[in-house]
Amino acid sequence: MTAGRLLLVRHGRTAYNSEARLQGQVDIPLDAVGRWQARTAAARLLTRHEPTAIVVSDLSRAHETASFLARAAGLDLAVDARLRERAFGLWEGLTGDDLRRDWADQFAVWRAGGQPEGVGAETRAEVAQRVREGILEHASALGPDDTLVVVSHGSAISCAVGDLLGMPTDWHGFAGMLNAHWTELVATRGDFSPAWRMVGYNLGPTDASTDWNAGPDTTRDSDAAAETRDPD
How distant, in Å, are the alpha carbons of 21, 34, 66, 222 from that of 183? Predict the structure, then answer.
């Protein structure tokens, strides 16, 4: 038995997102825009899906994002620390300029898709394994007509989705997800591989404002966050 559908939701915006800082496992709350994103995304998701269960990372930005959806859906939240963001070690809290200045060689390796040494960051394989195990454990408690919503983090989701689709851990075919957007997978029926198929990636209410990353009714900011986004 497994859930028939997985919706993997990234948390809303934080101050670190706005400042283009690596968050990793630093426990940063949503900012005002992030709360608006979470509320708006929850309303849109519920027009398309009826969640059976919601499981969430133990970091506050994911928990607060999930709480908007849980209240609207009338569901309780299950917290699972395995759904935490990828740990970035000594780089957590730093910007792209910081890394380029103080960690030039390691930063070049990372931007090329490699694993920098001496940083203390989790590998993509480690993240994929723990997040996948958490997702599949919760999915296995549900049936084929059920929808499991997983509220997590950008790098954690992209690593896990690649793994669930049978891609190698060094594959970087996914662009970074927007805050409070989701990826949709459905269980494969029959004896086929992989066990999950992608229906959509980076889905969400991007028409809710002229610039989703800046909040409602604002002018467009730069894409500075792309510089320090994990290259997934």
Answer: 23, 18, 15, 24
In angstroms, how far is the first alpha carbon of the chain from the final one?
Answer: 30
- Residue 214 in 3-state DSSP? coil
In a domain, 69, yes or no: yes
Tell whether 201 is in a known binding site: no
Q: Over the stretch 139-182, which tens digit does the pLDDT of each residue have?
A: 999 999 999 999 999 999 999 999 999 999 888 888 889 999 99
Strand order in the sheet with 147-152: 77-79, 53-56, 147-152, 5-10, 182-187, 196-203
Q: What pLDDT is attached to residue 3?
A: 97
32 annotated as a binding-site residue: no
Catalytic residue check, 11: yes
Instruction: Give the pLDDT confidence score for residue 51 in this predicted structure.
Output: 98
How confident is the model over 2-36, as pLDDT tens digits?
999 999 999 999 999 999 999 999 999 999 999 99
Instruction: Say which residue the tokens 């996914």 belong to.
Output: 174
Residue 202 annotated as binding site: no
Q: What is the model's pLDDT at position 215?
A: 85
Number of domains making up the chain: 1
Is 186 part of a structural domain of the chain?
Answer: yes
Question: 149 in a domain, yes or no?
Answer: yes
Name the active-site residue from 11, 138, 153, 181: 11
The answer to whether 85 is a known catalytic residue is yes
